[in-house]
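Hello,

Following up on my earlier ticket. Below are the four sequence lines again, exactly as submitted.
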Amino acid sequence: MARTTGSDGEKTEAAIREAAVNLIARLGYEAMSMRQLATEVGVQAAALYRYFPTKEDLLFTLMRGHMEGLIDAWDAARPAAADPATRLAAYVENHIAFHIKRRHSTHVSNMELRSLSHDRLSQILKQRTAYEKELRTILRDGSEAGVFSVDDTGLTAMALIQMMTGVIVWFRPGERLSISEVTATYLSMTMRLVGAKAHGATTSYSAARPLGRSKEAVAL
Amino acid sequence: MARTTGSDGEKTEAAIREAAVNLIARLGYEAMSMRQLATEVGVQAAALYRYFPTKEDLLFTLMRGHMEGLIDAWDAARPAAADPATRLAAYVENHIAFHIKRRHSTHVSNMELRSLSHDRLSQILKQRTAYEKELRTILRDGSEAGVFSVDDTGLTAMALIQMMTGVIVWFRPGERLSISEVTATYLSMTMRLVGAKAHGATTSYSAARPLGRSKEAVAL
DNA sequence: ATGATAATAAAACGAACGTTCAATTAATTC
DNA sequence: GAATTAATTGAACGTTCGTTTTATTATCAT
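Thanks for your patience. The regenerated structure is below:
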């Protein structure tokens, strides 16, 4: 056989990307073989090379797409001109929503950086730094305006991002907590962490607690 | 050649473990070859199999040792019978100190779990859960005693652990911040996050700020 | 000194890897 | 409907992988 009936380049490429994200997230980049990926897509291994010249090209494409999606999502969610607390709340909500929705993709982008060449690693890190800088700016603005008390802007930004991104390690949709409950709790923790001074009914974050009391969290 | 002069089983095994931790942390478990490891140790690949029957056995041994070290460190640092805030402070200090000191080992234990067989994964997760349970207990005690205000004990414990462990991603010894400065800032953030009510001069964590002001944090 | 044992080297195994190439068929264009 | 282009197959390439086997030498106990 050769070309199969109904074959379509765009559909195949999309299928490869989706299967690759899932496989890499589950097995790891090094552990996933091109033949495994091809089987998942329903195609021969050689066909993959029509769309991605090398395995690393495939990985890089996935990561770049993930980072672009993250930055685009924040650009769309960012409040036009608001006080630091509102902007911080928007950042937290967007970050958690995006990372829960794109769990596998996030896993890949966070865990497989070392499989990138130097140049490509730099490109991804550049995107990541730009995204993180948005948070540092918010923290600095809030700190200078006196509505946050933050010891060290850079360190606090890193701590918050690690904390929020960590959601994907244990969160499973449809289990004990809903996305909105998780987001509310993380928002509350974030606001306390940065020492936000409440200044209105809608910003009383520390009272936004889910209904149920927890017994045990499910690890991993 | 065969046995070399001065060769010693115990020393070789220790050298293998140390080299393996560094190599796996840098390249990843799948990407590190047994021949690479052997070269690093200064030995032939076949010699590794005298000490570890398979590559996965080696990985498991490293991870189990790491988790045992973490639990032992906490057993040694745990305050005998103290109030929740003191216990929480001890937990945070121990966690950060241990993870900074054993950065590479932590990297391996956190990133390579998927390369373990089902049974061995369960063993490591069991150890991890036991360690995390200590933190949940502290949070629950503090919450019930009214000295912490925590929405969800399990979720807060996970958030704190992700935040603290994240230190190893960006912290480099000898750079802008010292270990004690980092620890002080994380302690301060932790106490605010759990809504700890200060009840004495030594527990005024939110004032424990490092001297220098940050300009930019170094990513990765 | 000698025999036992511990530690390693050297070479080889089959399997799996990423990738390439030529052939073949489906879809599209003219 | 013929020519062209797009999509895929099947087979093969050289390399590297984890691991095993066998032989050889250093060390240690007697």
